[in-house]
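Researcher: Last one for today. Full complex below.
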Amino acid sequence: MKTLTGIPVSPGVAIGKALVLRSEDSFVIAKVEIRSEDIPKEIVRFEEALTKTRSELFSVRKKIAIELGHEQSDIFSAHLLILEDRTMIEDVLSKIKEEHVSAEYAFSLVIQRYFQAFAQINDEYLKERVADIKDVGKRILQNLRGGVQESLMKLKEETIIVAHDLSPSETAMMDRERAIAFATDIGGPTSHTAIMARSMEIPAVVGIDQVSKEVATGELLIIDGNRGVAILKPDAETVERYTREEKRFVELVTELDKLKTLVAETLDGHKVQLMANIEFPDEIPSVIAHGAEGIGLYRTEYFYMNRTDLPSEEEQYKAYRQVAERLAPKPVVIRTLDLGGDKFLSSLDLPREMNPFMGWRAIRFCLTRVDIFKTQLKAILRASVHGNLKLMYPMISNLTELKRANELLQESKEELRKDNFSFDDQIEIGAMIEIPSAALTSDVLAREVDFFSIGTNDLIQYSLAVDRVNEKIAYLYEPAHPAILKLIHQTITNGKRASVWVSVCGEMGGDPAMALLLVGLGIDQLSMSSFALPKVKKAIRSVTFREAREIAMRALEFTTGEEIKKFSEAKLKSVSPELFEE
Ligand code: PEP
Ligand code: MG
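Model: Here's the assembly. Have a good evening.
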């Protein structure tokens, strides 16, 4: 038994078998020499691995074609072609025969030569193909090792996913029924993979140094998402203890869910709107189950991921309409495409950047690729007649961007009018406040919008210069930092002066102690991963507005994030000790 610690990013406990996703360094294979008489056996092993990979790719292609259409499945046709590459196959066979090495080793040498050759080519399209070769290569190696062949999309049994890192697009592809926890070597608390784990309501721990090397596929593993711990090869007693804990956790969640029909108001009747964040429409049942009053952030970029084309206006309209109808009359805030940072799309051939979080992304990208932006705006506008939709722009950094986005919205409305489409002309428009410059000029931005939504995940990252996905500096990622409270306070004050309502849709709002502070600062709405709603509601229902204000005002006087965190948690504990029972 061995215990490794990391950063807890999604609560709960899971006990199960690990599936270790190896990253590209798995192409570095130890040299294994073989005897001459074993050469034929090794060749057969290699050929069998190719056959198996081929049949796997055929079935994945079929599945994708059925679920997402032929265009999406074409990528796997490219993968199949790589498998047929005679030069690659001959190279591997001759290495086995001439150098007397194992098939794995021979294959790894050949495929690495391919990577090197492709890396030197100055052609973006061909460079992209490296990813395809890696994908196919990983499958071949997995099959050679006789390891687990489950793809992420279709797991055979309940599985804990262990990886060096998981991209949001990999996470999005995952079998949501059977993936019961994540553990990764790297990653920060508000990386989108961590956020996805919370949406999926499964425990996750990131930043566990070397976990993907220490754990082997098929091994028993416990992930404790409450404490940020992974226990490798646990003994029977530990398994039993955690089984009890898992049960207790589920009971606590069920108990808190009983609050779902109650309003989120303080003891003296001050109401706060509690909303849910979603990445996919299939999260709606959970949003409803946890008692959300609507959706405060629909991250539409996931709609654009894991596909080789861009979604059309019609396709987006249908999807947004469905969400609007399922939630109506409750509101749904649709955020326009926020790509970049740690979220990339395979359909767009974007240049690699030194600082992707500060690069050509989100609204900056949309204001240049007006075609893509207007297609989405029109889809949202058309869907707006089917429910209570609101629209917001991510990553606004100045007034000019906001005005330009609004101009494009007006143009989209005109074009829809010409084409006789109906839409809600009064649809509310919001700006996300997630860059310090936006918070500091929120008085000016307020003139152009109906609401602000403070994206604390990015606001913290940009204000404190702490990459949100980097586990090494996660200790500096402080939601309670005095600078963050000041920026939020200023945004709320400026919003109120201009009759602009203000929400917090970053993860900070889902922390009950921070939520009390935000309520005290006068926030109108909090939007969070839906599982966090009951806890936050419980906290809000445990104080008077006056107490919340006192907490906030006192917090603004402290000089360090540590003090603020400690103080607000102590306050929460005194008003709602039940929340600390777990
Ligand atoms: C944020 O930055 O706080 C936010 C809600 O947006 P995202 O997490 O998608 O960047
Ligand atoms: Mg953001």
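The chain has a mean pLDDT of 90. The CA atoms of residues 339 and 532 lie 25 Å apart.
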